[in-house]
Amino acid sequence: MLHRTHHAPYSGPVTTIAAPLTAWYAAHARDLPWRRPDCGAWGVLVSEFMLQQTPVTRVLRPWREWLDRWPAPESLAAAPVADAVRLWGTLGYPRRALWLHRTAARIVERHGGVVPRDVADLLELPGVGPYTARAIAVFAYGERHPVVDTNTRRVLARAVAGRSGPRAPSPHDLVAMEDVLPRDAAGAAIVNAAAMELGALVCVARAPRCGDCPLEDRCAWRAAGYPDTGDGRPRQARYEGSDRQARGAVLRVLRDAAGGTVPPARLAGAWPDIVQRDRAVASLLADGLAETTAGGLRLPG
Ligand code: SF4
C-alpha cells in the first residue's frame, strides 16, 4: 500500500504522460522474449533476476539457455547448485544464480511449483526485493502496481519534476509513478513498461534523444532549458583491479574445473594479488558460492 505524505516532490499535470508513453511503446518497444504473452511467469521471473544491474543485450542468450535447460521451477530446484552457477557464466553478480536456485526450491515447496502472483508472497522468495516482486506481479500476471527502476526514475525526474536526474531512491518514487498510471491494470502495466523502455532507449543518462521522445512537448526539464539541478549519476566503482574482478576470476576457475575441486596451486593462478585472492575466496565461501574440500575449493554441490 502506498502512502502519500505532505511532502510531494513531483507536481504538475503528470497524468498527461501516460497516453504518449503508451502510443510510443506500441510503436517502439523492443521485442524481448520475456515480454511475449506466451512467456509464462517463470520466464518473467528469471528475466527479472538476470536484468538486475545487467543490460538486456547481455541477458538474451543466458536467459534462453536457462529456460531451455530449466523450463520450470521444478527442474531448476532438482538440479545441483553448481550447474546453476556454471550456467550463470559471466553475467556478473553470481549470487543471483544461488538465489534463483533457492527461489525455485521455495516455489516448489510452498507454492506447488507455480510462481506466486501476490507481492507479499513474492517478497518472501530469496533474492526478490520490492522492485522485482512488483515487476513479476505486473509483467507476469497483469496485477496493478507501480514498477520503478532506475530508467523510470530518470524519466519521472526529467519529464515530470524538471530535474536533470533522479534523486536517491525513495518511497516517493512509487507515489510519483502511481500518479501517472491509468486506472486499469492492463493500461498501467504498459505505462510501467513504457517508462522503463523510454529511459533505456531515449531518455538515457548522458545524452537524452529529446527529438525522438514522445514527451518532448511536455517535458518539464526540457521546458526549463535543461538546468543542471545537481542530480548527476553517482560514479560507478572502478571494476579493473577491484575485489569484484578478483572474485569473478576465482569463480571462473571454479566454474571451468572439469574435475570439480580446484587445488590451491591452480587457484593461485586465478589472480595475482594474494591478499585480494584470499578475500575473494573468503567472500565466495561466505556467500555459499564455493565450498572447501580436502583437495581445495569447488562450486557448491
Ligand atoms: S524530452 Fe528529453 S529529457 Fe525530457 S523525457 Fe524526453 S528524452 Fe528525457
Q: How would you briefly describe this protein structure?
A:
The protein has 15 helices and 2 strands. The protein is mainly α.
Q: What does the model show?
A:
The longest helix has 17 residues, at 95-111. The protein is 52% helix and 2% strand. It has two domains: 1-235, Orthogonal Bundle (Endonuclease III, domain 1); 243-298, no CATH class. By secondary structure, the chain is an all-alpha fold. A two-stranded antiparallel ribbon has the order 1-2. The radius of gyration is 21 Å and the shape is globular. Strand 1 and strand 2 form a beta hairpin. It has helices at residues 18-28, 41-51, 56-69, 73-78, 81-88, 95-111, 119-123, 130-141, 150-160, 172-180, 185-201, 220-223, 243-256, 264-268, 274-287, and strands at 291-293, 296-298. Residues 155, 158-159, 202-203, 208, 210, 213, 215-216, 219, 221-222 line the site of iron/sulfur cluster. The site of iron/sulfur cluster has 13 residues, from helix 9 and helix 12.
How many structural domains can be distinguished in the coordinates? 2
- The unreliable regions are 1-15
> Bound compounds, please?
iron/sulfur cluster
- Alpha-beta classification: mainly alpha
Could you tell me how far the N terminus lies from the C terminus, measured between alpha carbons in angstroms?
Answer: 40 Å
Q: Any guess at the CATH architecture of the largest domain?
A: Orthogonal Bundle
Share of residues in helices: 40-55%
Net shape: globular
Counting H and I runs of at least 4 residues, what is the number of helices? 15
Briefly, what CATH class of the largest domain? Answer: Mainly Alpha
The value of Rg in angstroms is: 21 Å
Q: H/E element string?
A: HHHHHHHHHHHHHHHEE
Give me the side-by-side strand order of the main sheet: 1-2
Q: Which fold does the CATH topology of the largest domain refer to?
A: Endonuclease III, domain 1
CATH superfamily of the largest domain: Hypothetical protein, domain 2
- Main beta sheet, described? 2 strands, antiparallel
Percent of residues in β-strands: under 5%
Mean pLDDT, all residues = 90
Number of strands: 2
